[in-house]
Amino acid sequence: MENLLNLYCSYHPEFLNSLEVFSELNKNRILKTLNNEKEKMNFLSTVAEIQFGLFFVKLGLEIEYDKKYPNNQKPDWSIIVSDSIVIAEVYRLGKSQKDQARSDFEYPLMKKLEKLTHRYLIKMTFLDEYFDTAKFNIDQIVKELDNWLTNGRKNKGETIILQKNFLFEIRKIDTPKNHLYCIGNASTIEIKQEKLEQIKYLNPNEISKKLTKYNLLISENHFTYILCVSIDFGSGFDFNDFNEYFIGKGVENIDFGTPLGNMEEFKQWGKTWTELGEFYNNPTLSGLILLYNNEFRFIPNPNRNQVIYEQKYEKLLNKLNEL
């Protein structure tokens, strides 16, 4: 199996150089993790951890990667603030399994198609978006399309369906360079709401598990805890979903000027009923740092009794609030 780090660097040649900003201790631990990782999803999760580490360095923070504590827990990042520790745990919110499988098939297919020496721009569409990728061979699809393109000049708008699932349409002819251009599949995103919200009666999702993962460590040492989430575009979530879920959301709007029966006793609540978010159920969580589309955003826990509002964290909090 090809080393995932080498493969990743072939697409991101600047990646290893970006690690030079870390201390030798942090850099060695990161490289060891990257070199040992065999699973793609775990590898990408480590890349997400590095992205947040680079962000902390940019903020001028003193950090340690994978620091081991007496209870054998190893949070992704420990931020040293005066004589205290801020634990920063990273979670990569990625695509659903179906979306990821489709993406893992589509990308290498497009790369091989673009090596064909035909001066066309083509559009590729999957007729069945969530097909069983194990049933199809990428090299065979490329060969069949090559044969079709070789067999006579094609006109704009011509199409072919290969293996009953892959629709190719000629969008442009006589392109500038002597190779095929390919536009990817315009796929929908399968949003798995339960990856963010903890739905009743379902097993705890990964975010829910991380909310309480360090409770004992936090309570014993009076640590501050920040959950860092790298949001993949393909997950279907964005900043607003987290703001709503963790701070709260209006669940029912009522215009008390409209005759809705005897509502007098509810006037004290105002015109909006509000459902409080997860911050109010997790007092050990100081806040969220979110990464989406190369932008970082901080959402603090509104509870002013939270540890992060203590004076010694003032500089850190000010830096985060500037995001």
Provide a short characterization of the protein structure.
The chain is of the alpha/beta class.
Can you characterise this structure?
The chain has 323 residues and is an alpha/beta fold. The protein has two domains: 9-96 and 193-321, no CATH class; 97-183, no CATH class. The protein has ten helices and twelve strands. The protein has a six-stranded mixed sheet with strand order 1-2-3-8-11-12. Strands 5-6-4-7 form a four-stranded mixed sheet, with helices on one face. Strands 9-10 form a two-stranded antiparallel sheet. Helix 5 (97-113) packs across helix 6 (138-150). The longest helix is centred in the N-terminal third of the chain and has 19 residues, at 40-58. It is elongated, with a radius of gyration of 25 Å.
SSE layout:
Blueprint: H1 4-11, H2 15-18, H3 24-36, H4 40-58, E1 62-65, E2 77-81, E3 84-93, H5 97-113, E4 120-126, H6 138-150, E5 159-162, E6 166-173, E7 181-183, H7 206-212, H8 215-221, E8 224-231, H9 239-247, E9 248-253, E10 272-276, E11 285-292, E12 295-300, H10 314-321
Parallel strand pairs: 3-8, 4-7, 8-11
Antiparallel strand pairs: 1-2, 2-3, 4-6, 5-6, 9-10, 11-12
Helix pairs in contact: 5-6
List descriptors.
alpha/beta; six-stranded mixed β-sheet; 2 domains; 323 residues
Helix fraction bin: 25-40%
The sequence of SSEs as H and E is: HHHHEEEHEHEEEHHEHEEEEH
Q: Stretches where pLDDT falls below 50 for ≥5 residues?
A: 251-263, 265-271
Overall 3D geometry?
A: elongated
Question: So how many helices?
Answer: 10
Kindly state the number of beta strands.
12
The fraction of residues in strands falls at 15-25%
Main-sheet strand order equals 1-2-3-8-11-12
Number of domains: 2
Backbone CA Rg: 25 Å
Structural class designation: alpha/beta
* Mean pLDDT over all positions: 85
Distance between the termini: 40 Å
Largest sheet: 6 strands, mixed
